[in-house]
Amino acid sequence: MTWETKVSNLLGIKYPIIQGGLAYLAYSDLAAAVSNAGGLGQITAMSLESPEDLREEIKKVRLKTDKPFGVNFAIGQHGRPYSHMLDVAIEEEVPVVTMTGGNPAPIFDQLKGVNIKKLVLVAARRQAEKAEELGADAVMVVGQEGGGHLGRQDIGTMVLIPQVVDAVSIPVIASGGIGDGRGLMAALSLGAEGIEMGTRFIATKECIHAHKVYKDALIKGTENDTVIIKRSLGAPARAISNEWTSKILELEENNSGYEGLKGYISGEANKKYIYDGQIDAGFAWAGQVMGLIKDEPTVSELFARVITEAEQIRKKWSL
């Protein structure tokens, strides 16, 4: 069976499956493995220290695959400057740039006249419409089931995707709560042209930076083992529930503000959990899809599983 969609054609990939940006985790090993398996792998630019580091990571991906890949720019509320990092992506002529968080308009300005596909992660219909106005080639739409940063209105993927499909003319990529072939087929039936998976790719062999403790938590946990933090900052995000996130919620309940929270929600606190396995000294992003994760396959095994399951559904539907 072929899996040609508007997204696979747009990005030049075999399967309409995109790997999420995954702060501090999405580097060359994972990105190349996803691209080699037929999807679109990504590097997380803003988790790298310098433009030189990004350039080196791009070169590493190209040594490991000749397939298309993307570079993700997480431009969050308290993010650092990124234009010099984007310059590297432009100089290296990366095929795809994706944007998450913040206002993407400056990125579009910097990419004017450049032959790079532009994808924006959104969590609301109006955001998708704005991305299309700015010149996005496609939007990735995340429902409230997703991991990491989400929309402020708690709209689920099943409701949000059709809303956005009806509102924009560019391809829509579904994200949030998707981790298998059933999720892929559900997304396509809602009008999406592909899917983005984040949490599911963490529990793979090629996500080499994720600590075993983190992967085990994803495999052993359920959909009830996540919690939304940072609501008080207007930037809700889903993480694995632990004592650290309980402390964050307590501080939010007491209106501590960003200054009171910053030590608990920092990148360093994130890395203590995901790199070092210190579950009592940090936090880790995860979506409700962890309730569907039962093992740690290779990326190629995961793709084979997803596509086989989706093809079985297509046969059942006689498509």
Fold and architecture overview:
It is a single chain. The chain has 319 residues and is α/β, with parallel strands linked by helices. The strands form 2 sheets. An 8-stranded parallel sheet has the order 1-9-8-6-5-4-3-2. Strand 3, helix 4 and strand 4 form a beta-alpha-beta unit. Helix 2 runs parallel beside helix 3. The N and C termini lie close together (10 Å).
Topology:
Elements lengths: L5 H6 L5 E3 L8 H9 L4 E4 L6 H14 L4 E6 L8 H9 L4 E5 L4 H6 L6 E6 L2 H10 L3 E5 L5 E2 L7 H11 L4 E4 L5 H9 L4 E4 L1 H4 L9 H9 L5 E4 L7 E4 L2 H11 L3 H5 L5 H8 L24 H18 L3
Parallel strand pairs: 1-9, 2-3, 3-4, 4-5, 5-6, 6-8, 8-9
Antiparallel strand pairs: 7-11, 10-11
Helix pairs in contact: 2-3, 3-4, 6-7, 8-14
